[in-house]
């Protein structure tokens, strides 16, 4: 799933394409819905996006937001969605089907005889969770209305209070979008590895030193990830993220810090990775849904 750093990278990339410094802003010329389940709103028509040029491209949590015609196109890529940009889309509308294509947005060419730029939203697999909203106020999107503050907007004192008030495991807190927006499965693994904390540690029982270490790790990991994504075309963001990860999706590989083998805990629809030496005092976490250390 794309998390905050990748969505920020997408926003920065699209901003360079749709709001260029040396040309007029892009104007939406067409929106094609190819998978009708992807569109979650009906009150604001898609054609409203064509009422004016693009005025902003931004992000809130894991949501990508493109503002045009006085309304907002809000995109949540979910687990398997992605955005593919082209400087020259082929002419002609597409037929809705059962493939990966979900939605296409075209922009008017800068030159009347030039190519139409645009982007496609795609989603791999059979479980369709990609979501698109067209709204006049981004707070109308339920997922955005529930978001907590952005990670970089939380100071250490506030973060400590959030941790102390959480009664579950620390990995769950990091992934809870209503507590801190933008961190998902991958970066929570990376943050906990950098902080030398077990993903199953009880949040409310962390010491002040551990909380400070976690806060510093969160900032450092996310800053590094954003820097890694900055300036990259959309097509490169996934691979650059994978290359930069230290433990997430590295099961069986060697920890780059201590050389121990990275281990995994599997759940019904996800998994986490950790280093026993760096994070759990050498103990292995049970590879089942029970969140207990093996005795």
TrEMBL record:
Can the keyword DNA-binding be found in this entry's annotation? yes
Q: Which GO terms describe its molecular function?
A: 8-oxo-7,8-dihydroguanine DNA N-glycosylase activity; damaged DNA binding; DNA-(apurinic or apyrimidinic site) endonuclease activity; lyase activity; zinc ion binding
Listed GO biological process terms: base-excision repair
Task: Name all Formamidopyrimidine-DNA glycosylase catalytic domain ranges.
Answer: 2-160
Where do the FPG-type domain residues begin and end?
A: 246-280
Catalytic reaction annotation: Hydrolysis of DNA containing ring-opened 7-methylguanine residues, releasing 2,6-diamino-4-hydroxy-5-(N-methyl)formamidopyrimidine
SUPFAM superfamilies named in the record: Glucocorticoid receptor-like (DNA-binding domain), N-terminal domain of MutM-like DNA repair proteins, S13-like H2TH domain
Q: Which UniProt keywords apply?
A: DNA damage, DNA repair, DNA-binding, Glycosidase, Hydrolase, Lyase, Metal-binding, Multifunctional enzyme, Zinc, Zinc-finger
Query: According to its UniProt record, which cofactors does this protein need?
Result: Zn(2+)
Family named by the database record: Belongs to the FPG family.
Task: Write the protein's name.
Answer: Zf-TFIIB domain-containing protein
| Species assigned in the record | Arthrobacter caoxuetaonis
């Amino acid at each position: 799933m794309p998390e905050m750093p990748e969505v920020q990278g997408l926003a920065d990339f699209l901003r360079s394409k749709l709001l260029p410094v040396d040309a007029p802003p892009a104007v939406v010329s067409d929106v094609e819905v190819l998978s009708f389940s992807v569109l979650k709103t009906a009150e604001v028509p898609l054609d409203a996006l064509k009422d004016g040029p693009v005025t902003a491209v931004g992000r809130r949590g894991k949501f990508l937001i493109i503002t045009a015609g006085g309304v907002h196109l809000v995109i949540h890529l979910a687990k398997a969605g992605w955005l593919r940009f082209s400087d020259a889309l082929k002419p002609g509308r597409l037929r809705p089907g059962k493939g990966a294509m979900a939605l296409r947005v075209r922009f008017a060419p800068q030159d009347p005889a030039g190519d139409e730029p645009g982007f496609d939203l795609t989603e791999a697999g059979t479980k369709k969770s990609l979501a698109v909203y067209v709204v006049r106020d981004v707070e109308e999107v339920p997922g955005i209305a529930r978001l907590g503050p952005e990670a970089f907007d939380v100071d250490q004192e506030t973060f400590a209070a959030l941790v102390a008030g959480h009664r579950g495991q620390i990995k769950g807190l990091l992934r809870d979008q209503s507590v801190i927006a933008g961190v998902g499965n991958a970066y929570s693994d990376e943050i906990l590895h950098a902080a030398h904390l077990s993903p199953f540690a009880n949040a409310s029982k962390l010491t002040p030193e551990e909380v400070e270490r976690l806060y510093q790790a969160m900032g450092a990991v996310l800053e590094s990830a954003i820097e890694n994504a900055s300036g990259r075309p959309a097509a490169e963001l996934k691979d650059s993220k994978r290359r930069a990860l230290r433990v997430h999706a590295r099961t069986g590989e060697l920890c780059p810090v201590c050389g121990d083998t990275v281990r995994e805990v599997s759940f019904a629809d996800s998994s986490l990775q950790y280093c026993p030496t760096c994070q759990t005092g050498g103990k292995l976490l049970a590879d089942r849904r029970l969140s207990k250390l093996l005795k």
